[in-house]
Amino acid sequence: MRAMSVAGEPRFDARPIGPGTVCVVTGGLGFIGSNLTHRLVDLGATVRIVDALVPAHGGDARNVAGLDVDVLVADIGQAVVADAVSGAHVVFNLAGQVSHTASMIEPERDLYWNAITHGRFLETLRLVQPDVRVVHASTRQVYGRAIRLPVDEHHPANPVDVNGVAKLAGEQLHMVYARAYSMAITSLRLTNVYGPRQRLTSDELGFLPVFIRTALENGTIKLFGDGSQRRDCVYVDDVVDALLAAAGEYGIGRVYNVGHAVDHSLAEIASVLTRLAAAGGRASEVVLSPWPGDHQRIDIGSFHTDSGLIAAELGWKATTDLADGLRAALAFYREHPWYLSST
């Protein structure tokens, strides 16, 4: 089957991902990328991973241990990546830096990893494999503070931190290449993702891994402010489903939200998690804590994603409820305790 690009010209062969499909996963040693890689291998695809293994970004070769995949340790902006993408049918571009507070400390570094390298990578794809299907991972952080809830794709983009600016720039670069060069590209704005293979030892990669680590260690979970802020959280298997749905023949040149239909307050999330993680009847304590200045100045308040567009056009919606997802995540980390270690 031939798919139509945004410019109306057939550019690539749409096919179900399976045996004979060559997939490239950038950031493939990280949280979402490694879970996607496991799924692709299960489907029979040939997988090539490109990952810079930047220490603070969370990538770890152990995330794909035992899988028959090729791994190139490189920055996606480097020329050597041309060999990895040559002959590929689908590229899942998940590389990037995700810490909001780190982006405010080293803004140029964040712009490099989330925008400049992606511009170089897109140029490599244009020159080497222009017919490849590309799915790019963006973030709900591009919206900034919501002026209405839930937030759909028509909501203004007004980032509150450098990470949101850089991710929006990377997203727009992908859309420029989709329009200008008729490349088959889709971008997904992901909300709070959690589940197996997430780095737990950093306090800079989102509140969910911090909560999960603390609950597993029976520590004290600190909620900034009054705990009433709301978030929708998406289990990583649902995100992998969204990535695969976006790799088909539809949605080219489109940007989609990927979130959950149900949102919860941070206090509710912490309560569910501590109840599920309680060991021997002893649960972690949850306390309220004043906002640290570096966090408060870039806080976005409550956020709830409207994922109606991707449901209507690609048939995707999150199906894992919070308790089931957290239960599965806790079980995984208990079976793989090295995620709780800094080594």
Short description:
By secondary structure, the protein is an alpha/beta fold. The chain has 11 helices and 15 strands. It has a domain of 239 residues: Rossmann fold (3-Layer(aba) Sandwich).
Annotate the secondary structure layout:
Blueprint: E1 2-4, E2 10-13, E3 22-26, H1 31-42, E4 46-51, E5 70-73, H2 81-85, E6 90-93, H3 100-105, H4 107-128, E7 133-139, H5 162-181, E8 184-190, E9 192-194, H6 207-216, E10 220-224, E11 230-231, E12 233-235, H7 236-245, E13 255-258, E14 264-265, H8 266-277, E15 285-289, H9 293-296, H10 308-314, H11 322-335
Helix pairs in contact: 1-7, 4-5, 6-8, 8-11
Describe, in plain words, how this protein is organized in 3D.
This protein has 343 residues and is α/β, with parallel strands linked by helices. The chain has a domain at 2-194 and 234-261 and 303-320: Rossmann fold, CATH 3.40.50.720. It contains eleven helices and 15 strands. The chain has helices at residues 31-42, 81-85, 100-105, 107-128, 162-181, 207-216, 236-245, 266-277, 293-296, 308-314, 322-335; strands at 2-4, 10-13, 22-26, 46-51, 70-73, 90-93, 133-139, 184-190, 192-194, 220-224, 230-231, 233-235, 255-258, 264-265, 285-289. It has a seven-stranded parallel sheet with strand order 5-4-3-6-7-8-13, with helices on both faces. Strands 1-2 form a two-stranded antiparallel ribbon. Strands 9-12 form a two-stranded parallel sheet. Strand 3 (22-26), helix 1 (31-42) and strand 4 form a beta-alpha-beta unit. Helix 6 runs parallel beside helix 8 (266-277) and helix 8 packs across helix 11 (322-335). The protein starts with a strand and ends in an 8-residue tail after the last helix.
